[in-house]
């Protein structure tokens, strides 16, 4: 029995693609003589279309769903009302798979305060203008614990006025009326405060020099040292480094015959201040003076190495070291002195040649790399020299003010002119005031901290 065409197959081809006439004619059904199986030949380019249901949407992992934020348009000019919020806070969950920066919440409350960078303490060196209870961000030295800071100012703790009518009124009213110090006393205490500036980090060296002899270097060194020692609580020493037989030790009452030569020879055996104090002379202001060599045959032996030995020893025991230099500005001692100098005092006389040589000293210092010392220098204008009454001191002072930091006039005083022992308490008030002004200016030019 002959096979009929497959009705179902014809229907599928009708919905899709129609078979070509050439492919249909080639399809032949044959019956095998030895079996009942039916064999059908299929064309090679037959196309079949199958309709599949839509694929399900992929599900995101839990860690990605936690950080997903709905795309909501935001108006940057709109400010939400606190009672009618228009935004929703979204919980942020950090994933261990995240490699980028962690997203932050949009709410202002979630912002973290950034601590300010540490700054310098404006009150690390002074308690002036500090509010009560405010503390320093840096450790304070013991010198900050002053009486005016710790004591409450009242009737019992306020000191009584000094001198004159203010003191008399304070006494007759049984300490109930305290007008305070007079203007003169306040000026003196203010100058004391300037001279008493505290230092940290080692000894300060101040040489007193000029290129001309006989202008009063030793006198100025003596006055400066006495003014410093009288006002300050620490130790002050003046070294006579003049290789040509200096006379600094003759300005105070001698208490020893020792000189800088003895200090050099006994340096290894000096273990403390008691040993060193036996080699110096001390006056009524507590100024220590170390004399120079008195033997003319040995004076030239004091060189740069010897000065360094003396300077190293004095640096162990003193806060300020003054050096009375000689006239040999190119001497090796002068080189060692300037290498340690924190400030310099240039002494000038009142005559034309003395002022010119003092100015040339400044020029020499600038030419040899000591320009900073020149700009910070103080010029002491000694008015006791000859010719002072014949020149215009204002013009000399004006010249030096254009080159150095300050100029101080040292007036004539009979006690200084005698060239002998100087009694600080017996100096004329104007001379003592000039010495104290010089001391205050020198101290103000010294570095407070030594790095």
CATH class descriptor name of the domain at 198-444: Alpha Beta
What is the spatial order of strands in the main beta sheet? 5-6-4-7-3-8-9-10
Q: What is the SS-derived class?
A: alpha/beta
Number of helices: 16
Portion of residues in beta strands equals: 5-15%
Q: Name the average pLDDT.
A: 76
- Report the strand count: 10
CATH superfamily of the domain at 198-444: P-loop containing nucleotide triphosphate hydrolases
- Taking pLDDT < 50 over at least 5 consecutive residues as the criterion, the unreliable ranges are 1-38, 92-112, 114-129
N-to-C CA distance = 122 Å
Strand count, sense and barrel status of the largest sheet are: 8 strands, mixed
**Shape, principal axes of CA atoms:** extended
CATH topology of the domain at 198-444: Rossmann fold
Q: Give the SSE order as H and E letters.
A: HHEEHHHHEHEHHEEHEHEHHEHEHH
Range of helix content = 25-40%
Radius of gyration: 49 Å
Based on the coordinates given, report the CATH architecture of the domain at 198-444. Answer: 3-Layer(aba) Sandwich
GO molecular function: ATP binding; ATP hydrolysis activity
Organism: Leifsonia poae
Region (Disordered): 1-42, 100-140
Protein name: ATPase
Could you characterize the architecture of this molecule?
The protein is of the alpha/beta class. Among the domains are: 145-181, no CATH class; 198-444, 3-Layer(aba) Sandwich (Rossmann fold), CATH 3.40.50.300. Helix content is 32%, strand content 9%. It is built from 16 helices and 10 strands. The strands form 2 sheets. Strands 5-6-4-7-3-8-9-10 form an 8-stranded mixed beta sheet, sandwiched between helices. Helix 7 (217-231) crosses helix 16 and helix 10 (304-317) packs parallel to helix 11 (332-340). It starts with 6 loop residues before the first helix and ends in a 7-residue tail after the last helix. 27% of the residues are buried.
């Amino acid at each position: 029995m002959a096979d009929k065409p497959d009705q179902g197959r014809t229907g599928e081809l009708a919905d899709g693609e129609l078979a070509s006439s050439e492919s249909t004619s080639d399809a032949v059904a044959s019956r095998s003589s030895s079996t009942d199986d039916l064999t059908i030949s299929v064309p090679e380019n037959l196309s079949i279309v199958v309709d599949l249901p839509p694929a399900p949407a992929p599900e995101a992992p839990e860690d990605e769903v936690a950080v997903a934020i709905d795309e909501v348009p935001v108006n940057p000019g709109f400010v939400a009302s606190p009672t009618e919020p228009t935004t929703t806070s979204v919980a942020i969950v950090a994933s261990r798979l995240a490699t980028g920066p962690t997203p932050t919440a949009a709410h202002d409350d979630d912002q973290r305060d950034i601590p300010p960078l540490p700054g310098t303490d404006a009150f690390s060196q002074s308690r002036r203008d500090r509010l009560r209870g405010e503390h320093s961000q840096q450790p304070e030295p013991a010198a900050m614990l002053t009486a005016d800071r710790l004591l409450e100012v009242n009737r019992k703790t306020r000191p009584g006025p000094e001198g004159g009518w203010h003191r008399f009124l304070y006494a007759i009213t049984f300490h109930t009326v305290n007008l305070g110090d007079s203007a003169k006393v306040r000026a003196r205490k203010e100058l004391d405060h300037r001279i008493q500036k505290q230092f940290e980090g080692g000894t300060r060296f101040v040489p007193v020099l000029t290129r001309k002899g006989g202008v009063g270097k030793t006198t100025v060194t003596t006055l400066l040292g006495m003014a410093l020692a009288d006002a300050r609580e620490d130790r002050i020493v003046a070294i006579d480094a003049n290789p040509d037989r200096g006379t600094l030790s003759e300005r105070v009452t001698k208490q020893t015959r020792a000189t800088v030569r003895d200090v050099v020879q006994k340096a290894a055996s000096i273990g403390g201040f008691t040993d060193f104090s036996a080699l110096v002379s001390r006056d009524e202001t507590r100024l220590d003076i170390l004399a120079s060599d008195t033997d003319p045959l040995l004076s030239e032996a004091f060189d740069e190495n010897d000065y360094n030995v003396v300077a190293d020893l004095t640096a162990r025991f003193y806060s300020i070291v003054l050096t009375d230099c000689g006239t040999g500005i190119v001497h090796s001692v002068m080189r060692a002195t300037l290498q340690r100098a924190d400030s310099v005092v240039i002494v000038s006389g009142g005559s034309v040649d003395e002022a010119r040589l003092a100015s040339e000293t400044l020029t020499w210092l600038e030419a040899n790399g000591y320009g900073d010392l020149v700009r910070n220098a103080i010029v002491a204008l000694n008015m006791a020299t000859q010719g002072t009454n014949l020149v215009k001191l204002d013009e000399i002072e004006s010249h030096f003010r254009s080159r150095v930091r300050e100029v101080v006039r040292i007036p004539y005083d009979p006690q200084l002119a005698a060239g002998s022992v100087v009694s600080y308490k017996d100096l004329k008030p104007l001379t003592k005031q000039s010495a104290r002004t010089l001391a205050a200016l020198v101290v103000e030019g010294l570095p407070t901290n030594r790095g």
